[in-house]
């Protein structure tokens, strides 16, 4: 197995103790990474593996690697090695045959990371729930609910926030609230609101990609 690579940073809040956080972080994570084509799956994987600048080809399984996580307890910094096991990485398109082919991976996954392009949410805001992209997303969410059996977290990752003019207009915090509201019905459909997280960012630069990758790791805690 290759040497650990830094996949992100976690800052503890008062809700979680250091010992509990370390214990959770050390547990192997079975992950399936989903999203439509060109939503940033390969770039996100490359960022986690320290390969952000490498050419992006069609998404392929990442297998297993050790992710080193920087844990800031507020009093000291710890480094925790976490096995990341990617069951599969799929272009989820809303087509039944593709969704059904992903069924085994969804059933086995503890963490489902689903990438959504921010411009799709911008386009959907004018006629909520009416766009083709939203209908596809709703179909995907329904199947995730049907297939998932061991889920600890579902994480919606909004990529290409830099391409959505609302991001600069609202600021990061208000923008996150806005897109979370747009996904509210879908989160309710999953019937696991407490296990569902939404993170927002961009993969356009190494700095922004590393920040987004870190926030996904934080959401898994």
Kindly describe this structure.
With 221 residues, the protein is α/β, with parallel strands linked by helices. The chain is 41% helix and 26% strand. It contains ten helices and seven strands. The protein has helices spanning 18-26, 41-48, 96-101, 103-108, 118-124, 132-147, 165-170, 172-182, 184-190, 206-220, and strands at residues 5-11, 29-35, 64-72, 77-91, 111-117, 153-159, 196-200. Strands 1-3-4-2-5-6-7 form a seven-stranded mixed β-sheet. A hairpin with a 4-residue loop joins strand 3 and strand 4. Helix 2 (41-48) packs across helix 10 (206-220) and helix 6 (132-147) runs parallel beside helix 9. It is globular, with a radius of gyration of 17 Å. The mean pLDDT is 84.
Biggest sheet strand line-up: 1-3-4-2-5-6-7
Oligomer: single chain
Question: What share of the residues lie within helices?
Answer: 40-55%
Q: Care to count the β-strands?
A: 7
Count the helices. How many?
10
End-to-end C-alpha gap: 24 Å
Structural shape: globular
The helix-strand sequence is EHEHEEHHEHHEHHHEH
Radius of gyration: 17 Å
What would a concise description of this structure say?
The chain is an alpha/beta fold and 221 residues long. Helices cover 41% and strands 26% of the residues. Helix 2 packs across helix 10 and helix 6 runs parallel beside helix 9.
List keywords for this structure.
globular; alpha/beta; 10 helices; about 220 residues; seven-stranded mixed β-sheet
């Amino acid at each position: 197995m290759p040497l650990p690579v830094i996949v992100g940073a976690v800052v503890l809040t008062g809700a979680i103790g250091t010992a509990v956080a370390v214990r959770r972080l050390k547990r192997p994570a079975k992950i399936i990474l989903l999203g439509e084509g060109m939503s940033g799956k390969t770039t996100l994987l490359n960022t986690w593996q320290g390969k952000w600048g490498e050419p992006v080809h069609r998404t392929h399984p990442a297998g297993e690697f050790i992710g080193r996580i920087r844990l800031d307890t507020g009093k000291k910094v710890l480094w925790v090695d976490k096995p990341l096991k990617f069951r599969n990485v799929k272009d989820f398109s809303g087509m039944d045959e593709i969704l059904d082919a992903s069924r085994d991976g969804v059933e086995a996954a503890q963490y489902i990371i689903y990438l959504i392009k921010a411009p799709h949410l911008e386009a959907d805001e004018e006629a909520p729930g009416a766009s083709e992209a939203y209908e596809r997303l709703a179909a995907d969410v329904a199947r995730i609910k049907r297939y998932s059996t061991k889920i600890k977290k579902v994480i919606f990752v909004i990529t290409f926030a830099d391409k959505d003019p609302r991001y600069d207009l609202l600021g990061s915090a208000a923008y996150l609230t806005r897109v979370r509201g747009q996904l509210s019905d879908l989160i309710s459909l999953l019937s696991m609101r407490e296990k569902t997280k939404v993170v927002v960012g961009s993969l356009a630069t190494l700095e922004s990609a590393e920040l987004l990758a870190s926030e996904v790791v934080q959401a898994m805690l």
